[in-house]
């Protein structure tokens, strides 16, 4: 026989849609998660920066914004796929706002560099926000406009585009800095 705690958790799981549908079970009921997708050059540092924010429950390195299905790192490096190295995060909006995440995004890279970050050059290293809702688009555009004066006379090159398919990067890219603590990245 299961304990009352186990029965409670089981009942919550039964009431919640699956985690694939962006809900996670909690003692208090379902917690609706949101996604955010950001490209700011090499994804290793971007992933690490977002993982450190309370309310971000997951950060996954991958590829988005291009025209090739199931791209690989080797294909991305060719610069012919149209994809950017990006990080898709799952976050609890009750703990961290999308605006906070957008501001973090702008703070961790140079958004005025076109198709590059530091030593990494190519469209796969572009600065981009891939929004998942009209609300996210509005927040991203407002913050970009607000921050523009901080970079004058340069122009913010960050593109703001609707999120499309996101392809998870190879496993060796996930949590890269946890696996390689002495690795270096522009962030």
Structural features, described:
The structure is a single chain. The chain has 187 residues and is an alpha+beta fold. It folds into 2 domains: 1-32, no CATH class; 34-179, 2-Layer Sandwich (Peptide Methionine Sulfoxide Reductase, Chain A), CATH 3.30.1060. The protein is built from 6 helices and 10 strands, in the order H-E-E-E-H-E-H-E-H-E-E-E-H-E-E-H. It has helices at residues 4-15, 43-51, 73-77, 98-107, 134-151, 176-179, and strands spanning 23-26, 29-32, 34-40, 56-64, 84-91, 116-117, 120-121, 127-131, 159-162, 166-168. A 6-stranded mixed β-sheet has the order 9-8-3-5-4-10, covered by helices on one side. A two-stranded antiparallel ribbon has the order 1-2. Helix 4 (98-107) runs parallel beside helix 5. The protein is globular and about 35 Å long. It starts with a helix and ends in an 8-residue tail after the last helix.
Entry keywords:
alpha+beta; Peptide Methionine Sulfoxide Reductase, Chain A; 2 domains; six-stranded mixed sheet; globular
> CATH topology of the largest domain, what is it called?
Peptide Methionine Sulfoxide Reductase, Chain A
CATH architecture annotation of the largest domain: 2-Layer Sandwich
> Ranges with pLDDT <50 over ≥5 residues?
1-15
Amino- and carboxy-terminal Cα gap: 51 Å
Number of helices: 6
User: Helix fraction?
Assistant: 25-40%
Overall average residue pLDDT: 83
What is the number of domains?
2
Q: N-to-C SSE series?
A: HEEEHEHEHEEEHEEH
Strand content: 25-35%
| The CATH homologous superfamily of the largest domain | Peptide methionine sulphoxide reductase MsrA
**What's the alpha carbon Rg, rounded to whole Å?**
18 Å
Instruction: Assign an overall shape.
Output: globular
Class computed from helices, strands and strand pairing = alpha+beta
What is the subunit arrangement here?
Answer: single chain
Beta-strand segment tally: 10
Largest sheet, spatial ordering of strands:
9-8-3-5-4-10
Largest sheet features: 6 strands, mixed
């Amino acid at each position: 026989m299961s304990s009352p705690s186990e029965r409670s958790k089981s009942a919550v799981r039964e009431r919640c849609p699956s985690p694939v549908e962006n809900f996670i079970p909690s003692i208090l009921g379902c917690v609706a998660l949101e996604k955010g997708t950001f490209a700011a050059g090499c994804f290793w540092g971007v992933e690490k920066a977002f993982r450190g924010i309370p309310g971000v429950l997951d950060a996954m390195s991958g590829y988005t914004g291009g025209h090739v299905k199931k791209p690989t790192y080797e294909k991305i490096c060719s610069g012919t796929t149209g994809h950017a190295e990006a990080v898709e995060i799952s976050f609890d909006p009750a703990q961290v706002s999308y605006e906070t995440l957008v501001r973090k995004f702008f703070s961790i890279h140079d958004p005025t560099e076109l198709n590059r970050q530091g030593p990494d050059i190519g469209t796969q290293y572009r600065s981009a926000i891939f929004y998942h809702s009209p609300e996210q688009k509005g927040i991203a555009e407002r913050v970009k406009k607000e921050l523009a004066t901080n970079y004058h006379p340069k122009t913010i090159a960050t593109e703001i585009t609707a999120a499309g398919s996101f392809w998870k990067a190879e496993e060796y890219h996930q949590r890269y800095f946890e696996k390689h603590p002495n690795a270096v990245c522009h962030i």
